């Protein structure tokens, strides 16, 4: 048998699942002693080019409380045409369509390689995708122009039958009517007044006049498109109109006096967008795309007043409880977010400004609905333009990489219960028999709603082993989990993807080695990090760090090999060896540290951290560093100050930034212009290599990372210096002045110090 | 009495004076003998009172003799003739003159002529007139005037003197005399006069016809009076000498009866005659019948004549009995004509303090020599009592009707604009009055004493100028503010809101696009019109293009704003549906320059009707619309005007939502006032905000049903705007009227964001204000907008003694923003006299202004008091005014006499018109909205408008020769004056009727209507066909002319005699009894007399 590494990789590729433990401790007690909870990272819509969707509906277990879907783990009695549910052991009759079933003629869902399978539901009329642009007009002329162009361009990327709508806002909020010829019409709302959904619909004339309809005449299908058509129109019908309309968009005309911020009614604009869709297209796939160039400065959701002399809140203010609008604004956006989520729509926020824009307050809009959050300096940057364009990228089938209104349901075999999930989802509050009392992340439910997701959206799902110690699982028993994701595909089809996995149970006392070997430290690190980040929402930063430290120490105590009170004897097996290092970098990461980050930045980083898949998440935790030199091919090097050498070019990828750093000598060479001399063409190639590699990363990643090209002594070099392990600082004199590496002027502890402490604590019997 | 009053005015005329004395003496003096009679005649005397003066002593005894048939008869004889002549005319022409004579005649006519009269064919009669008229008329008129005038001068002293004339003989004699007087002047000897006069009279009589008008009144007065007093039987009150003069005495007293008898006495001989002379009779009878009600018995008993009448009827015309005196009572037509003739030719020079200007109905030019033109300010009295006690006693309200931006005829220069540079206009330091011609410069010109508060101020060095030997500044005539009554100052920045010069104002057109508006075609019509109308926005002086910017809003349940920025290819519509919390959705591009954005605006106006063509929205909002306009102006930081075109009751859910509360059952209850009050206070609040922003609102209403004008008009009313109402608007029928009003309204010159302050010299104080404006304190009249039609009536009260020498000064200062955005101050100054004698007060009153004030007072009163209370108060006040006069100024005479001051002789008739107006006494067909509408209109009317509004003009079209180009003389507004063979035009400033008699000649019908017979004329026709003949052209020309005179387009309605529409028409015959219970003129006069008598006793 292959190694666990291969097993894990294979599973990930097939099912989009990574478990922290791939062999499960068979009792609750043992499980809790494992420190790292039994959990998995699930990428529900992982791209599977090799998986054609089946064009029929799944077969469900007939027990009302179960309704698990027929899967390869089920026991099938081909003669009796019966199958037994592997979760509840209910015996079910196959439906008539399965009459021809036999050992040699099995439906796909029974084949082991189809542990993940996708069904296409044919029922119901497909509803078009909806894109509602909510555009801030309080922008600088350049920015607005760039944004307008991006938006115009995006029209050509949309599916022709998608509905689009446009809301612009500044001091007022304008909902543009797109159906009319000649005069362009818009409905205008005051930016200071919070309106209920009902009011908004009344004011937009969306409520149908109470005309007594012919009894039970389902005029619905005709009526609805008619009503909403004023504000949401198929792209192919109005793209010319809309292009013109966007072209004519003016900056907010209201005067902004010196020393003031423009009045920006983001809160109301968003509220109207939500209300508009809520009234017209509930439960159909829709994206509200908010483009804003500054903080909301009036009305509900206000983040900062319009006086420029009062700066927008910082972490310092928040800690001092000095952010006077924050709580109310957050509440406003949370309310909007939950309404949006309830309607199955998602909200994207594209915030481009040099200062903060209130992402802290608005983050829930994207986090709860699965929308994107993009932060940039200006709309007139390739960062924004390309990121935005990438939203509409297509997969190998020519479908958009986006899905809407998904519901994720998790079923477990009886030894397991569901503790919760961390990711861009909201709870549907479905309490079933397999829901645990203990919550980790968003818990208390077996179903979550993910309003917007793409092939990389990943949730952390946490479980609890509930099997009692005195009721051991029979030898060779397997625990099973089924993930059922129902969603609206970008082709407007409704689909269901079912992933059923099983893992072996092991007695932790007798088979600890197995369990240990099956530990996925990468998954575990990300899962723990997600828990940590989730906790920052409700807890103070230091508390979260302490909690993480304690978990780490306990893990080391449990799985380390050492002699008591002898730090030098401490060893970790291969499957755990990297874990402390991940934790070290995690502690320094912007997800847990707010120092040097604005609240908006923190929100932005955390947003992405909570939804990217394992690989990306790991990069975020511990950036990758490549070194380019004349000494050989590019090589990954330690993320350590010692890697910063004069004759190297470094390429660091932190997910959010791509930093190319020229060592001192290289920089001098380049300055001297050697790269332009034919005899030094190899130097030219050396300079070019990291650029090409960076380009590759830039092409693939969403959102576009910030691209930083710097050199030794450059001001932007700070991005690199802040990430590397400060193994050499002004504090450890022995390294000072040596030629190896670059010292970092910081008081942060280095990995070495961290490890020393860890070992000391792990081997101490005190805790 | 009349005489007295007329006298004072006379002097100005000058001419008469010499004559007067002559007359006076002659007739009176001579008459003394006759005068003796008066006492017995008591009643008769009524009219004569003035005369009595001289005669009283001797009069009594003599009177009878004088009255003695002979002279009388002789006199009568002529009179009679006159009468006939007049009669003829009378029938055809204005009742008054002819009738008057007739009346007199009754007595006189009976004699010989009476029979003739009936017999005589009118033409015959006319002929005589015809020839003599021209020359004769003038003289005659003059004579008439003089007579009255003469009397007057004499009267003050002799005042009572009239009494004598009362004696029938004399009276009758006199009257005819009056007519005769013309001749008299020649004949000097009074005694002789009579005898001579009579003979002489005849010739004059010929001339009389024209004069007739003037003459008649007196005559009529005599006879009518009796009728008036019906109860008093004596019926024969005198018409003051000339009918035109106001004094009419009815002598109700029993004494009168005898006199009456006596009166009849003279006629006595003619009794048979009487019969022949219906008019005369009628008068008497009427007197008795109509008003008398009770009196009838008296009649019979007292009047032997009555009996005779009874008998008489047989022969000539038995019917007359019922009819009242038509002509004896003061005739508005007569007064107007007289004033026109006397004062229309010479310019009115304002240099002299306390001059009473010509009537509003007279065309005259004004020369500003230090006092404001009467076009700007008219006062109820130009001679103010010195003390408040006097004022209280007289009960004559002291008020000024001010029209600060009045339009002037082209011949008169508009006020000069004075620029005092940065220092701004020169003002008194204490009372802040502006420099004016009345300021006294002292100390060699280094200081000036304020004429209002007497404060002594330094003259700033740059303004210093030496004084001449009279103490006048040398440069007085170079500086408008030192030599003119009206002028303007350029305001400095201190006079501007927020200390910032204003930006040019804006017009915002706000168009209802609900179902009703679309269906009636209004929206299409309006949009089409606006395209061209926008080229005619008001502009300053010689400006190339108007500085005014325009904006557009349409609305139903929600509002649609339009961005019409010139850079746009297409207009943009912005819908605001948050009507509960209105705001303006755009700043840039809403208010634009017409020329710059023309293409976009045209495109917008083309599209509006299309966009809403399929609308099914019937609900509308209202308050939010105004709010939006106001906010838009606020956002643009300018003043301006909203033009609202609205169709229905705003029932949509929004602030200012109204419910239908129309309830006719409330009429005549204590709750009636609620019909005039706004439903909600929201509009007042809104109006207040509008005023603060300088946002004037003009409302055009197109209701199909109740829209609650009382509430909707609150904002226009308080912001200085206008309301126009087109009930059941249909494009075909009402297009002309609406467009014409709209054009005028848009084009008229207007001032914005105005504040008016009226300062007065110490002693009086402005205490009350009426009109379309808002006041946040007690002194400043705030007008968001003010145009040349809007009038503010100000009432003054004493707070101290006035001084006869220094008189009283008014200064009205209006600070406003011109249509080009220039901040200016317009100043009007007016100096009035002060008096210690009540007679002076009564001699310098102006009834039209008085009525204007009283109507406004009453119309405001209905907001707070039951209508009945208001009506009673009006009557009481009027009675008090007249009683005070009677008591203090008129010569002592029998209580039975009704004596009216010359200047106020029309007060009763006009007041009656006010009392029976739709607001105070609604007919069944008058809707609540109509009443509120009219109420609101009248509140800001000027004197000319109220004058014609309350007493409509009735013009016979076919009486005068077709060729004559002048406007035909009006006739009194009474059905009696209509002849079924004629066509009449009636207008009151709002309505225009063409009444066609049933037996109009076919030729006339053909040439006017283009149909062959009366029956083919479409009733209710609103346009006369354009036909190429003299009559058609003339009539249409006349109609156009009438319309041009009025601030609102009058829609023509053709009414056929005996048609259902005639009811509507008859409503405007204000001298008749109205269907809604309004008294006829005669009845009312009787009632008035009764009231006065009660007060006197």
Kindly list the characteristics that best describe this protein:
heterodimer, A: 767 residues, alpha+beta, eight-stranded mixed beta sheet, seven-stranded mixed beta sheet, 21 helices, 29 strands, globular, B: 1097 residues, alpha/beta, 41 helices, 41% helix, 14% strand, disordered N terminus, membrane (chain B), protein transport (chain B), SEC24 homolog C, COPII coat complex component (chain B), zinc ion binding (chain B)
How many alpha or pi helices of chain B?
A: 41
Outline the low-pLDDT stretches of chain A.
210-227
Please tally the β strands of chain A and state the result.
29
Q: Mean pLDDT of chain B, as a whole number?
A: 75
Q: What characteristic shape of chain B results from the CA principal axes?
A: globular
Radius of gyration of chain B: 30 Å
Largest sheet of chain B: 8 strands, mixed
Q: What is the general shape of chain A?
A: globular
Your description of this structure?
- The complex is a heterodimer of chains A (767) and B (1097).
- By secondary structure, chain A is an alpha+beta fold.
- Chain A is built from 21 helices and 29 strands.
- In chain A, the strands form six sheets. In chain A, strands 8, 9, 10, 11, 12, 13, 14 and 15 form an eight-stranded mixed β-sheet that branches.
- The longest helix of chain B is centred in the N-terminal third of the chain and has 39 residues.
- By secondary structure, chain B is α/β, with parallel strands linked by helices.
- Chain B is globular.
- Chains A and B meet through strand 10 and strand 11 of A and strand 14, strand 15 and helix 26 of B.
- Strand 11 of chain A pairs parallel with strand 15 of chain B.
């Amino acid at each position: 048998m292959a190694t666990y590494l291969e097993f894990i990789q294979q599973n990930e590729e097939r099912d989009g699942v990574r478990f922290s433990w791939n062999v499960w401790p068979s009792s609750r007690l043992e499980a809790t002693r494992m420190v790292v909870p039994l959990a998995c990272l699930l990428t529900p819509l992982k791209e599977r080019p090799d998986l054609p969707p089946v064009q029929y509906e799944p077969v469900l277990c007939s027990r009302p409380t179960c309704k698990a879907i027929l899967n390869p783990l089920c026991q099938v009695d081909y003669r009796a045409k019966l199958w037994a549910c592997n979760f509840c052991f209910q015996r079910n009759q196959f439906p008539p369509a399965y009459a021809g079933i036999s050992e040699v003629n099995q439906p796909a869902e029974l084949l082991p390689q189809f542990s993940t399978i996708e069904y296409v539901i044919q029922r119901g009329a497909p509803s078009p995708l909806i894109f509602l642009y909510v555009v801030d007009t309080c922008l600088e002329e350049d920015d607005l122009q760039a944004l307008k162009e991006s938006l115009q361009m995006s029209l050509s990327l949309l599916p022709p039958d998608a509905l689009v709508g446009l809301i612009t806002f500044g001091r007022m909020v304008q909902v543009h009517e797109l159906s009319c010829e000649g005069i362009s019409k818009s409905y205008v709302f005051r930016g200071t007044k919070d309106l209920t959904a009902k009011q908004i619909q009344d004011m937009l004339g969306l409520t149908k006049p109470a005309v007594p309809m012919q009894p039970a005449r389902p005029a619905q299908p005709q009526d609805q498109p008619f009503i909403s058509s004023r504000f949401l129109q198929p792209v192919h019908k109005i793209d010319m109109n809309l292009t013109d309309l966007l072209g004519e968009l003016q900056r907010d005309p209201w005067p902004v006096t010196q020393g003031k911020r423009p009045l920006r009614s983001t809160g109301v604009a968003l509220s109207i967008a939500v209300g508009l869709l809520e009234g017209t297209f509930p439960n159909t796939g829709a994206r509200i795309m908010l483009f804003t160039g500054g903080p909301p400065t009036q009305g509900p959701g206000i983040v900062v007043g319009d006086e420029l002399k009062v700066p927008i809140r910082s972490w310092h203010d928040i800690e001092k409880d000095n952010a006077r609008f924050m709580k109310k604004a957050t509440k406003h956006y949370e309310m909007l977010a939950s309404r949006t989520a309830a309607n199955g729509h998602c909200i994207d926020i594209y915030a481009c400004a040099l200062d903060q824009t209130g992402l802290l307050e608005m983050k829930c809009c994207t986090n709860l609905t699965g929308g994107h959050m993009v932060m940039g300096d200006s709309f007139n940057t390739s960062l924004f333009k390309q990121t935005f364009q990438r939203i509409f990228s297509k997969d190998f089938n020519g479908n958009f990489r986006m899905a809407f209104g998904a519901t994720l349901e998790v079923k477990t075999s009886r030894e397991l219960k569901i503790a919760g999930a961390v990711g861009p989802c909201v709870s549907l509050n479905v309490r079933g028999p397999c829901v645990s009392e203990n919550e980790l992340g968003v818990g208390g439910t077996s179903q979550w709603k993910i309003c917007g997701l793409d092939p990389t959206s990943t949730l952390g799902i946490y479980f609890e082993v509930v099997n009692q110690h005195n009721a051991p699982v029979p030898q060779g028993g397997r625990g099973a989990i089924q993930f059922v994701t129902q969603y609206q595909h970008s082709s407007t089809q409704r689909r269901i993807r079912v992933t059923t996995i099983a893992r072996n149970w092991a007695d932790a006392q007798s088979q600890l080695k197995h369990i240990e070997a099956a530990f996925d430290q990468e998954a575990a690190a990300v899962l723990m990090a997600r828990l940590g980040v989730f906790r920052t929402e409700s807890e103070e930063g230091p508390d979260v760090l302490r909690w993480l430290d304690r978990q780490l120490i306990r893990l080391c105590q449990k799985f380390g090999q050492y002699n008591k009170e002898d730090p030098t004897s401490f060893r970790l097996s291969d499957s755990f060896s990297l874990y402390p290092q991940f934790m070290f970098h995690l502690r320094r990461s912007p997800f847990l540290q707010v120092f040097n980050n604005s609240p908006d930045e923190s929100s932005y980083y955390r947003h992405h951290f909570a939804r990217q898949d394992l690989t990306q998440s790991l990069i975020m935790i511990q950036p990758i560093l490549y070194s380019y030199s004349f000494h050989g091919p590019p090589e990954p090097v330690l993320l350590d100050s010692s890697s910063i050498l004069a004759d190297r070019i470094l390429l660091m990828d932190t997910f959010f930034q791509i930093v190319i750093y020229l060592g001192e000598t290289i920089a001098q060479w380049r300055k001297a212009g050697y790269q332009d001399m034919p005899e030094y063409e190899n130097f030219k190639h050396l300079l070019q290599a990291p650029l090409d590699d960076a380009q590759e990363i830039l092409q693939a990643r969403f959102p576009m990372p910030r691209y930083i090209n710097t050199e030794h002594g450059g001001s932007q070099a700070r991005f690199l210096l802040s990430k590397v392990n400060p193994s050499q600082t002004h504090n450890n004199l022995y390294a000072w002045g040596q030629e190896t590496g670059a010292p970092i002027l910081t008081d942060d502890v280095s990995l070495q110090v961290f490890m020393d402490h860890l070992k000391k604590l792990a081997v101490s019997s005190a805790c | 009495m009349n005489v007295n009053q007329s006298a004072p005015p006379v002097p100005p005329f000058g001419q008469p004076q010499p004559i007067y004395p002559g007359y006076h003496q002659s007739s009176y003096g001579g008459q003394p003998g006759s005068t003796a009679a008066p006492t017995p005649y008591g009643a008769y005397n009524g009219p004569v009172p003035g005369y009595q003066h001289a005669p009283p002593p001797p009069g009594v005894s003599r009177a009878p003799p004088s009255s003695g048939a002979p002279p009388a008869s002789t006199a009568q004889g002529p009179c009679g003739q006159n009468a006939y002549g007049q009669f003829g005319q009378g029938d055809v022409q204005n009742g008054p003159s002819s009738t008057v004579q007739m009346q007199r005649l009754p007595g006189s006519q009976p004699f010989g002529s009476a029979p003739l009269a009936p017999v005589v064919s009118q033409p015959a009669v006319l002929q005589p007139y015809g020839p003599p008229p021209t020359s004769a008329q003038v003289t005659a008129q003059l004579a008439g005037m003089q007579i009255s005038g003469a009397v007057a001068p004499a009267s003050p002293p002799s005042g009572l003197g009239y009494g004598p004339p009362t004696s029938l003989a004399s009276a009758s004699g006199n009257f005819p005399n009056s007519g005769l007087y013309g001749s008299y002047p020649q004949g000097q000897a009074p005694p002789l006069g009579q005898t001579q006069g009579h003979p002489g009279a005849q010739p004059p009589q010929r001339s009389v016809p024209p004069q007739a008008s003037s003459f008649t009144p007196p005559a009529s007065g005599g006879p009518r009076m009796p009728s008036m007093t019906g109860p008093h039987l004596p019926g024969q009150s005198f018409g003051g000498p000339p009918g035109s003069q106001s004094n009419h005495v009815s002598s109700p007293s029993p004494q009168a009866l005898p006199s009456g008898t006596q009166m009849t006495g003279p006629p006595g001989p003619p009794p048979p005659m009487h019969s022949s002379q219906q008019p005369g009779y009628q008068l008497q009878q009427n007197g008795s019948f109509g008003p008398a009600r009770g009196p009838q018995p008296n009649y019979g008993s007292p009047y032997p004549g009555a009996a005779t009448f009874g008998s008489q009827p047989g022969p000539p015309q038995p019917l007359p009995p019922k009819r009242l005196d038509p002509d004896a009572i003061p005739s508005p037509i007569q007064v107007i004509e007289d004033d026109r003739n006397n004062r229309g030719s010479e310019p009115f020079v304002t240099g002299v303090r306390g001059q009473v200007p010509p009537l509003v109905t007279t065309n005259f030019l004004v020369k500003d020599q230090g006092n404001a033109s009467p076009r700007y300010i008219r006062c109820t009295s130009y001679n103010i009592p010195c003390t408040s006690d006097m004022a209280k006693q007289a009960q004559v309200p002291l008020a000024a009707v001010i029209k600060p931006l009045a339009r002037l005829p082209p011949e008169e220069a508009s006020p000069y604009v004075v620029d005092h540079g940065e220092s701004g206009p020169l003002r008194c330091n204490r009372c802040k009055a502006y420099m004016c011609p009345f300021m006294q410069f002292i100390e060699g010109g280094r200081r000036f004493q304020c004429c209002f508060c007497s404060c002594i101020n330094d003259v700033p060095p740059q303004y210093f100028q030496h004084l001449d030997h009279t103490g006048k500044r040398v440069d007085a005539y170079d500086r408008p503010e030192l030599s003119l009554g009206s002028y303007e100052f350029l305001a400095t920045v201190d006079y501007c809101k927020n200390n910032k010069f204003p930006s040019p104002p804006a017009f915002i057109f706000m168009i209802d696009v609900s179902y009703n508006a679309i269906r009636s075609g209004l929206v299409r019509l309006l949009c089409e019109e606006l395209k061209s109308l926008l080229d005619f926005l008001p502009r300053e002086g010689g400006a190339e293009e108007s500085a005014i910017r325009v904006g557009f809003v349409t609305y139903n349940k929600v509002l649609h704003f339009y961005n019409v920025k010139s850079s746009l290819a297409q207009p943009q519509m912005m819908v605001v549906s948050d009507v509960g919390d209105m705001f303006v959705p755009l700043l840039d591009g809403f208010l634009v320059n017409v020329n710059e954005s023309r293409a976009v605006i045209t495109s917008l106006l083309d599209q509006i009707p299309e966009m809403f063509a399929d609308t099914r929205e019937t609900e509308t909002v209202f308050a939010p619309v105004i709010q939006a306009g106001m906010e838009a102006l606020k956002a643009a930081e300018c003043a301006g005007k909203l033009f609202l075109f609205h169709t229905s009751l705003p029932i949509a859910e929004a602030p200012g939502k109204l419910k239908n509360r129309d309830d006719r059952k409330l009429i005549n209850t204590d709750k009636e006032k609620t019909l005039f009050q706004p439903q909600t206070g929201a509009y007042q609040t809104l109006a207040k905000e509008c005023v603060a922003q300088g946002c004037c609102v003009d409302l055009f209403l197109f209701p199909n049903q109740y829209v609650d004008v009382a509430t909707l008009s609150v904002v226009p009313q308080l912001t200085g705007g206008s309301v126009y109402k087109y009930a059941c608007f249909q494009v075909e029928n009402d297009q002309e009227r609406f467009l014409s009003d709209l054009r005028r309204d848009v084009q008229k010159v207007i001032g914005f964001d105005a504040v008016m302050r009226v300062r007065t010299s110490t002693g009086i104080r402005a205490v009350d204000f009426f009109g379309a404006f808002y006041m946040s304190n007690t002194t400043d009249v705030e007008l968001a907008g003010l145009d040349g039609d809007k009038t503010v009536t100000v009432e003054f009260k004493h707070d101290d003694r006035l001084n006869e020498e220094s008189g009283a000064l008014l200064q009205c200062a209006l600070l406003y923003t011109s249509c080009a955005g220039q901040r200016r101050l317009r100043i009007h100054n007016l100096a009035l006299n002060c008096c210690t004698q009540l007679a002076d007060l009564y001699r310098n009153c102006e009834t039209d202004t008085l009525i204007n004030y009283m109507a406004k007072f009453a119309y405001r009163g209905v907001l707070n008091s039951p209508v009945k209370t208001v009506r009673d108060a009006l009557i009481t006040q009027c009675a008090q005014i007249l009683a005070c006069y009677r008591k203090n100024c008129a010569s002592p005479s029998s209580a039975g006499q009704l004596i009216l001051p010359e200047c106020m002789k029309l007060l009763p008739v006009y007041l009656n018109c006010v009392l029976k107006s739709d607001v105070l006494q609604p007919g069944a067909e008058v809707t609540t909205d109509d009443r509120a509408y009219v109420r609101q209109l009248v509140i800001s009317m000027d004197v000319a408008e109220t004058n014609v509004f309350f007493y409509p003009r009735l013009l016979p079209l076919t009486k005068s020769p077709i060729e004559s180009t002048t406007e035909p003389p009006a006739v009194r507004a009474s059905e009696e004056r209509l002849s079924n063979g004629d066509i009449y035009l009636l207008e009151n400033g709002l309505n225009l009727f063409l009444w066609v008699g049933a037996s109009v000649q076919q030729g006339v019908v053909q040439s006017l209507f283009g149909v062959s017979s009366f029956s083919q004329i479409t009733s209710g026709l609103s346009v006369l066909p354009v036909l190429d003949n003299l009559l058609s052209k003339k009539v249409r020309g006349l109609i156009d002319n009438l319309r041009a005179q009025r601030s609102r387009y009058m829609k023509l309605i053709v009414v056929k005699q005996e048609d259902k529409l005639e009811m509507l028409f008859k409503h405007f015959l204000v001298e008749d009894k109205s269907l809604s219970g309004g008294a006829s003129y005669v009845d009312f006069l009787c009632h008035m007399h009764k009231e006065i008598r009660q007060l006197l006793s």
